[in-house]
């Protein structure tokens, strides 16, 4: 099946073709027709499966071909995302595929001055991409009109629940026009179908078509996974050795903490490896620059925390390194899903010390396989070293857990949250609307056909 056979407007097919795509991914083949038919959709899809284009393309088609409910420039489609980077990525997808349509869009999130966003909204937008906290700021200031909303999208709903956004989401839903038959169309995309997601879906969706293209918590099959046992105080040395000896030009490295990300990036720089850190305490301008430098090759290693990396769209990323294993086994799946996207090969390396054996066991139990262990010559762990206690936050993650999520719209030990950052008195105007996403580039699938991976 080709994009030209899905029933999309000619302007959309032209835009997709110009990006080098011809064959839709599985989630796009299922989601696009269902959305075009006006159905509510509950879709289970990991990042990297093409889900963003799976809802942006039919959303653009419907808004283009259907007459607005009102003559005033009210928002017709709302896309909620958990993080700033994902909001910026979705916004770029809307711009890329809607380039030949007379539709206006805006991206709003915290960390930037609210005043330029207010001015843009007052000029009128058809499609609004937003994080929950900043959207509630605009609602409180009466700078956004959602009374005529036709389509609602919750993207990466599982992560929004993990980050504690459920109350904000419910506040927003209560302010929207009715859904159901002849009402608002609702689309919910999630990497997993937990009980909480199903409960949210039951209250939001009207007779939805359920789409599931990836089994719950299944790792990307084509990602080669390896564990390198190493002593805790030699991890950075081993990482520098791997990057240098194997000439890795682009590697995404995960740490558990923001402080750890900064410290590791500085150490890699001292070893002559261009590096940058990305996490919630970084300003939006710094996060955007770090991601852009990584994509352009100006830095070889991007050191990130879990929340900051969620939704990053990096074309053909070859290497992911777990410098520290995550406390939550499911986060391992999300981490390694940064590579091996859209049919491309990828490699996930985990540097595991004696303190993390329990974490590793939990991960292997989750993915139902043993990960290959290879000791690197000269870096074999000392068997006499005893494990030290590591804070272990189990699978029942608290919505108010003190992690990087607080700086993506939550409260964090008195530090500004997304809404506080939105206040003009505390923010300086900045140009741009977020991360420089790599969406819209052609990906080579297994069959040799180009697939849309946005």
From TrEMBL:
Residue span(s) of domain Helicase ATP-binding: 32-211
Enzyme Commission number, as recorded: 3.6.4.13
An example molecular function term from Gene Ontology annotations: ATP binding
Stretches with biased composition (Low complexity): 432-454
Subcellular localization: Cytoplasm
Region annotation Disordered: where it falls in the sequence: 378-454
Reaction catalyzed: ATP + H2O = ADP + phosphate + H(+)
Bilayer-spanning residue ranges: none
Gene Ontology, cellular component aspect: cytosol
Gene Ontology biological process terms in this record: response to temperature stimulus; ribosome assembly
Source organism, top-level taxon: Bacteria
Top-level EC class: hydrolase
Principal location: cytoplasm
Domain DEAD-box RNA helicase Q: 1-29
Entry annotated with the keyword Aminoacyl-tRNA synthetase: no
Functional note: DEAD-box RNA helicase involved in ribosome assembly. Has RNA-dependent ATPase activity and unwinds double-stranded RNA.
Family: Belongs to the DEAD box helicase family. RhlE subfamily.
Protein name as catalogued: ATP-dependent RNA helicase RhlE
Organism from which the protein derives: Methylotuvimicrobium alcaliphilum (strain DSM 19304 / NCIMB 14124 / VKM B-2133 / 20Z) (Methylomicrobium alcaliphilum)
């Amino acid at each position: 099946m080709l994009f030209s056979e899905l029933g999309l407007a000619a302007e959309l097919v032209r835009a997709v073709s110009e990006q080098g795509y011809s064959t839709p991914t599985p989630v796009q083949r299922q989601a696009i027709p269902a959305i075009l038919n006006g159905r509510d959709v509950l879709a289970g899809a990991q990042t990297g499966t093409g889900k963003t284009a799976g809802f942006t393309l039919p959303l653009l088609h419907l808004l283009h071909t259907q007459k607005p409910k009102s003559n005033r420039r009210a928002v017709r489609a709302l896309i909620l995302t958990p993080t700033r980077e994902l909001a910026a990525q979705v916004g770029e997808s809307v711009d890329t595929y809607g380039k030949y349509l007379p539709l206006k869009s805006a991206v709003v999130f915290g960390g930037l001055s609210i005043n330029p966003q207010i001015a843009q909204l007052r000029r009128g937008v058809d499609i609004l991409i937003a994080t929950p906290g900043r959207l509630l700021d605009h609602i409180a200031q009466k700078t956004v009109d959602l009374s005529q909303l036709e389509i609602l999208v919750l993207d990466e709903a599982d992560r929004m629940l993990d980050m504690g956004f459920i109350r904000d989401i419910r506040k927003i839903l209560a302010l929207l026009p009715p859904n159901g038959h002849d009402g608002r169309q609702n689309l919910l995309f999630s990497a997993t179908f937990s009980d909480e997601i199903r409960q949210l879906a039951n209250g939001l969706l009207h007779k939805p078509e359920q789409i599931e293209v990836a089994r719950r918590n299944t790792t990307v099959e084509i990602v080669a996974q390896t564990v390198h046992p190493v002593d805790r105080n030699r991890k950075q040395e081993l990482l520098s050795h791997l990057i240098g000896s194997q000439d890795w030009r682009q590697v995404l490295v995960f740490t558990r903490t923001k402080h750890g990300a900064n410290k590791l990036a500085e150490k890699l720089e001292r070893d002559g490896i261009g590096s940058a850190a990305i996490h919630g305490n970084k300003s939006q301008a710094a996060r955007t620059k770090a991601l852009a430098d990584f994509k352009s090759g100006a830095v070889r290693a991007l050191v990130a925390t879990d929340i900051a990396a969620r939704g990053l769209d990096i074309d053909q990323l070859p290497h992911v390194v777990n410098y520290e294993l995550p406390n939550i086994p499911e986060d391992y799946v999300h981490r390694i899903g940064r590579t091996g996207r859209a049919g491309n090969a990828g490699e996930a390396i985990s540097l595991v010390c004696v303190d993390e054996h329990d974490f590793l066991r939990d991960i292997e139990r989750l993915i139902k396989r043993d990960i290959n262990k290879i000791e690197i010559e000269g870096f074999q762990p000392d068997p006499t070293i005893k494990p030290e206690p590591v804070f272990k936050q189990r699978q029942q993650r608290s919505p108010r857990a003190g992690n990087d999520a607080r700086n993506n719209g939550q409260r964090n030990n008195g530090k500004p949250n997304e809404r506080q950052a939105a206040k003009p008195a505390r923010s300086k105007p900045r140009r741009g609307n977020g991360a420089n996403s790599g969406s819209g580039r052609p990906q080579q699938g297994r069959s040799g056909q180009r697939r849309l991976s946005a």
